[in-house]
Amino acid sequence: MGFEAAAAYIVLVFLISWVYTQWFHPASGNPKRLPFPPGPQPRFLVGNLQDLPTGGREWDGYAALAQKFKSDIIYLRVLGTSILSINSFHVANELLNQRGAVWSDRPRLPMIKELMGWDWNLVVQSYNEGFASHRRIVQQHFQPGVVAEQYRPVMKLEVKVLLQNLLFAPTRFSDHLKRMAGAIIMMVTYGHRVRTDNDPFIQLAEDVRRTSEETPGAALVDTMPILKYLPSCGRLPFLLVKEQLAAGKAVHSMVSSLLENESRPKDGSDEELIKNCGGVVYSAGADTTATALTNFFFGYGFAVFPISKIRGKLPYLSAILKETLRWKAVIPLGVPHCTTEADEYNGWHIPAKTTVLPNISAMLHDPKVYADPEQFNPDRFIAQGTEDAAPDPARATFGFGRRICPGRYFAEDSIWIAISNILHVFSIKGPDGGIKKNDVQWSSGLVSIPSVFSCDIQPRFEGAEQLVREDS
């Protein structure tokens, strides 16, 4: 047999084997021969490739499939990859919270981890990529007590800068929010004070955002690896801290405290771990906070409820914060989970290595839980009469189980401080003309970012302008 014939034979055997394992689903791992969860009928060879929601607002596509098949979970098989979409909090709680030992790994994600080189990032790390050691470090630096004592002064300082920027250039509110969020993260993580809009590390944060526009797990490359190459962003701020420590000029920060820890290895073998932890806080924190606050400007500006409600009423401010997190999920499809082994749920078989998409947007827009979910309405979180307030969206917004966001206390604090100060000083309204509410679109990346829109931002009361100026 010649070389070409032998090669063709090997390819044929491989193809037959692949078709058998992926199409006919043999009983290995499914001894009870249980059915798979509801979902579209797979097609020969490609499975449910044509059924995979793509082209924008994928979270709505998965929610539509759930409605079509009258099931909170939807199962798809795409080119050998099992995908499970969870579309209700009830199921997410049962599987991702209560069965975390099996449902908390991360899938392979070749686009973001292999091609973009982000396997260092705690957010997407699987158990065998150092997840436990990375999370331990990040979590200990973002406990509620640490946030309150060490980080709130930084938040308050940068919110003052935000108020001044809103006063002098209100039309650029989106840029000001990005600057504020990036400045807080830079100071907390690396001890670097952002002093201008052109700060290179703020630009780096924007570069990080651009490299993560494809939702992990939804990109075709995550089912067919090695389709294209995208370079990863560098983590230059780490080098800045090392230089400042060597010169005796370092400002206290998460990274500087880790590098100065007397118990760390003398050979510096933990530097990569420290660099990774700083990088994940920096890359994850700035973009999500700025996006949540941009959603607040849009939702609040176009909402219809009496502005006088918020004056002197902290419970209502808390309701506004909750509605901001609920109304537009910053990470609408969540970060994919992966099952470590086969499992059974509700009489269905869930294969091992299934990519699990927690549809956070669907959970936070469930009409059975949140009445009229498309409306920005903080009243839903204020108990009225004998009716209970709607459940706190934080139970889904920040993820689930062992993968819940370790920076959730930091995120809620920074957003709360920003919103409370903004609404104390400014009124926010949608424009009288020009762009309409339905003209704004949200991107389909991991972080869902709204398109450009305008708001009318004015000082709320006589003396507000002077108050902001005096605080400078």
TrEMBL record:
Pathway: Secondary metabolite biosynthesis. Heme binds at residue 405. Keywords: Heme, Iron, Metal-binding, Monooxygenase, Oxidoreductase. One of its GO terms (molecular function) is monooxygenase activity. PROSITE patterns: CYTOCHROME_P450 (PS00086). Coiled coil: none annotated. Its cofactor is heme. PANTHER family: P450, PUTATIVE (EUROFUNG)-RELATED, P450, PUTATIVE (EUROFUNG)-RELATED-RELATED. Belongs to the cytochrome P450 family. This is Cytochrome P450 monooxygenase 67. The lineage of its organism: Eukaryota, Fungi, Dikarya, Basidiomycota, Agaricomycotina.
